[in-house]
């Protein structure tokens, strides 16, 4: 059985020591700054003999699943997708309190959220265009099958409808265990609709590697606001690649149709547009909204829960046609 890591946070100095122990050629290593802290990890920028690095430690989660994602991250990099290079990993670092440690390259710059506040509208659209092209590159990385339920990165069900059916069953169980307090029947109606829509579109869906957390903070730009790479590959899964259009629609393109148009243009420039995209996006939207209502209810984020419920009700009323993508952009 996979071990779960603890929740105590290491210090920057201990992480620097851990990196030097894992990769002796990098020494001396010293902390520079905190990079970011997520729900499951903490990261620091480090100075080293081989240049700037990122040291990331896992705070909670299944180490074996994370290691599988790191391996997929490295495979994606080897296929030429613009993502940070992973330089080293250990399942248990003594200097980091026995936690999983990941060392990767550090590229200076700013995320797209910060860049969008300082550069021209045309420059932001160029970032969106490059992001769309990079995402298509990611989607072209070959995979053997749809992913399994646990990690999403081992061969699992043979069809997309089987993947969605498994998710629907999981959500049924989650909602039984944790009542979100929704009394209008939208959850049950949504789960039924999700399974039906997936069955209809499943024959044309082929598995691909998807990012599943694409929004402005996960796009790195250079100091002048030009696209560099996609960040945070911690949610990689072998699913329908159209899943990757949902979060950009919700968190990047709302009120920004020009950004969406540039993103689509960039995606098309790098490869084929997905068959039956709109119908597949309806499935992807329902998956995200039904999963999100459960998640935001569990973590007691009332504002996010209500936003997802509002979107879910609109999706159900429209039989999936009212998905999250901006109208008129394709």
Describe the structure.
By secondary structure, the chain is an alpha+beta fold. The chain has two domains: 12-105, Phosphorylase Kinase, domain 1; 110-317, Aminoglycoside phosphotransferase (APH), C-terminal lobe (Aminoglycoside 3'-phosphotransferase, Chain: A, domain 2). The protein has ten helices and ten strands. The strands form three sheets. Strands 1-2-3-5-4 form a five-stranded antiparallel β-sheet, with helices on both faces. A three-stranded antiparallel β-sheet has the order 6-8-9. Strands 7-10 form a two-stranded antiparallel sheet. α5 (160-177) packs antiparallel against α6, α6 (186-201) runs antiparallel to α9 and α6 packs across α10. The relative contact order is 0.12.
CATH architecture of the largest domain: Alpha-Beta Complex
Please state the oligomeric state of the protein chains shown.
Answer: single chain
Distance from N terminus to C terminus (CA atoms, Å) equals 45 Å
Side-by-side strand order of the widest sheet: 1-2-3-5-4
Task: Give a count of the beta strands, DSSP E runs of length 2 or more.
Answer: 10
Order of helices and strands: HEEEHEEEHHHHEEEEHHHH
How much beta, percentage-wise?
15-25%
What can be said about the biggest beta sheet?
A: 5 strands, antiparallel
Residues in helices, as a percent range: 40-55%
């Amino acid at each position: 059985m996979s071990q779960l890591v603890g929740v105590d946070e290491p210090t920057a100095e201990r992480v620097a020591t851990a990196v030097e122990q894992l990769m002796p050629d990098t020494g001396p290593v010293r902390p520079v700054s905190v990079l970011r802290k997520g729900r499951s990890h903490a990261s620091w920028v480090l100075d080293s003999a081989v240049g700037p690095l990122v040291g990331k430690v896992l705070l909670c989660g299944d180490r074996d699943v994370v290691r599988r994602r790191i391996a997929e991250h490295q495979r994606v990099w080897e296929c030429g997708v613009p993502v940070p290079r992973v330089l080293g990993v250990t399942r248990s670092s003594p200097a980091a309190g026995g936690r999983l440690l990941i060392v990767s390259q550090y590229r200076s710059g700013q995320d797209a959220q910060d860049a969008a506040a300082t550069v021209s509208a045309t420059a932001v659209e160029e970032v969106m265009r490059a992001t769309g092209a990079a995402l298509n590159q990611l989607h072209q990385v070959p995979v053997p099958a749809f992913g399994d339920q646990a990690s999403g990165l081992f061969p699992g069900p043979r069809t997309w409808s089987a993947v969605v059916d498994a998710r629907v069953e999981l959500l049924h169980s989650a909602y039984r265990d944790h009542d979100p307090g929704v009394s209008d029947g939208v959850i049950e109606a949504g789960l039924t609709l999700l399974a039906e829509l997936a069955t209809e579109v499943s024959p044309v869906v082929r598995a691909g590697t998807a990012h599943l957390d694409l929004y402005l903070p996960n796009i790195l730009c250079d100091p002048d606001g030009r696209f560099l790479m996609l960040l945070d590959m911690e949610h990689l899964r072998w699913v329908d690649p159209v899943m990757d259009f949902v979060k950009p629609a919700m968190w990047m393109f709302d009120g920004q149709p020009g950004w969406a148009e540039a993103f689509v243009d960039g995606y098309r420039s790098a490869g084929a547009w997905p068959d039956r995209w709109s119908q597949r996006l309806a499935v992807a939207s329902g998956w995200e909204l039904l999963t999100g209502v459960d998640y935001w209810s569990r973590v007691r984020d009332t504002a996010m829960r209500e936003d997802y419920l509002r979107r879910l009700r609109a999706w159900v009323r429209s039989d999936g046609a009212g998905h999250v993508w901006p109208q008129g952009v394709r």
